[in-house]
Amino acid sequence: MDLTGEERIAASRDTVWKALNDPEILRACIPGCExxxxxxxxxxxxxxxxxxxxVKARFSGKVELTxxxxxxxxxxSGEGKGGVAGFAKGGADVTLTDEGAETVLAYxxxxxxxxxxxxxxxxxxxxxxxxxxxxxxxxFNAAVSGT
Length: 147
Prior knowledge:
Alpha-D-Glucose-1,6-Bisphosphate, Chain A, domain 4, globular, CO_DH_gsu, START-like_dom_sf, Carbon monoxide dehydrogenase subunit G
């Protein structure tokens, strides 16, 4: 499933780019993120707790930054294993453009789940994924713009 959207951020593109590459800011903005540690300039390890309907899962895995085109765009992708709950994988293509004193962050998010959590039904998974993606980008906007 793919989700698209954009956020207008009251900050320069360089400031937004630096924030997109800052593990502390990302950890604070990712809903349910318990830990996010930088392994290299393009790899991170994460642990995230997610509740989807009646299933609560804790996913651990790696996050990778690819297609780097500073300070304009990148792809962030990851895969996590949640034990008996199953797995989740996905990513986002993120593009930054200047618009006056603001930066427009456009995104295309894709997500896929498998195992027990996939049995919840595509409608619940889609709505939860959309909610989590929207929450992350709203949190990120607030963190970067200081609102």
